[in-house]
Amino acid sequence: METMRICQVISSNIPIETTGKRRWGALEAIMDEYRKGMIARGHTCDIRWLNEANRQDYDIIHIHVANLCLEAKKRGLPYIYSNHDHSSYHLGKSSYGYTHQLEAIKGSEISFCHAEYVIDYFEDTDKLFYLQHGADTSYYTPNLELNTSDHKLLMVANNGLCGDQGFDRKGFIYGIEAAKRLNMPITIVGAYANQEFFEIHSHLLEYPRLKVISSNPTEEEKVKIFKEHTIFLHPSMLEFGMPCLTQMEAASCCLPVVGTYSGTNQIRGFYNIEKITTEAVIDGIIMTMDRYDEIRNEMIEDRAKYDWNGVCKKLEKYYLNVLKVSEKYDSKRTKELYIQEYNQTIKHNA
Predict the structure, then answer these.
(1) CA 168 → CA 152, 157, 219, 239, distances in Å?
(2) Cα–Cα distance between 94 and 4 in angstroms, integer?
(3) Residues 116 and 12 in one domain
């Protein structure tokens, strides 16, 4: 197999630790999992700034934000693009964000999105393919000694939308109201920005069984919290990753999930809410508790499927196919190559 030299391009000042310290943002975590996965397959994979990426040193240059893609295009630098920005969906197709991202996709060798509905949303291009998120199943492990009769609800998310920290994109209000109605403890974990959400919605803090951790906990602290809870709530109204990272981490820890999900890859142990209401969240919690041990055993059987290893195996094939193609992507030959290799990438209506 051909050995590749791969560059994952840094897009922020959030540090990406490679020394065993696990603390970074979601995008940075994804980049590091790609790096580890490619190195495990015998490839070279570095994390660099765009001005450190060049075609002489790297066969593959993978960028994760649109503005850096457009800068690479100006420099004549071929790139692969991963689209993680949900603002284009929220603001609509007439927004700058949408046209910006579409231009980045069209200028790429190939692009990825991490929710299947996004493929249909960017309908003016045939370069966009679905690549699922994963979890480190060796790190996010189930607590087999958990008392499954003493249920504790958990939400892990950074709330807000497009600069509005009071916007309940992640469904905190629904989760807390459901916990109140069922008289259950609930913990909400996230970054410092969640403090502003709870300042705006301070009445939510009146529920005595609510615990809020807004200290941006380390991954070590987060996995400990996962192991102390029994049901994961994620009734989010907008995600550009489906399943998202925290849903994958919860599944890896074998916490049944009550939340929103749209996709063809079914996840056992996931109660899908089609229309987000407090009643729907309550129904999901009750149905999950009724079959809890059975659901959890199913999740234990399936958890290996969620590992980043499988994601990186697919990503490697995409990378290798990029190197195989010497003609322009929009040629008939190239399209046939990707369709044949990845015909499991199914389009569906959002």
Answers:
(1) 21, 11, 24, 13
(2) 38
(3) yes
The pLDDT value given to residue 325:
78
Task: Give pLDDT tens digits for 193-203.
Answer: 899 999 999 99
Is 48 within the bounds of a domain? yes
Is residue 249 in a domain? yes
Contacts with 25 (C-beta within 8 Å, 6 or more apart), sequence order: 12, 14
Q: What is the pLDDT of residue 347?
A: 44
Q: How many other C-beta atoms lie within 10 A of the C-beta of residue 225?
A: 17
Q: What is the pLDDT of residues 54-70, one digit of tens each?
A: 999 999 999 999 999 99
Domain match, 191 and 252 both: yes
The set of residues, in sequence order, having a beta carbon less than 8 Å from that of 245 and lying 6+ positions away, is: 26, 29, 30, 133, 135
Instruction: Report the C-alpha gap between 31 and 279 in whole angstroms.
Output: 37
The Cα–Cα gap between 259 and 255 comes to 12
Radius of gyration of the chain (CA): 21
- Structural domain tally of the chain? 2
Which residues constitute the domain of residue 172?
Answer: 153-306
pLDDT one-digit tens code per residue, 308-326? 999 999 999 999 999 987 5
Q: Has residue 148 been placed in a domain?
A: no
- Separation between Cα atoms, residue 90 and residue 236, nearest integer Å: 13
Determine if the pTM surpasses 0.70. Answer: yes
Q: Is 27 contained in some domain?
A: yes
First to last CA, the chain: 37
Q: Are residues 162 and 301 in the same domain?
A: yes
CB 240 within 8 A of CB 115: yes
DSSP state of 140: S
pLDDT the model gives residue 215:
87
CATH assignment at residue 328:
3.40.50.2000
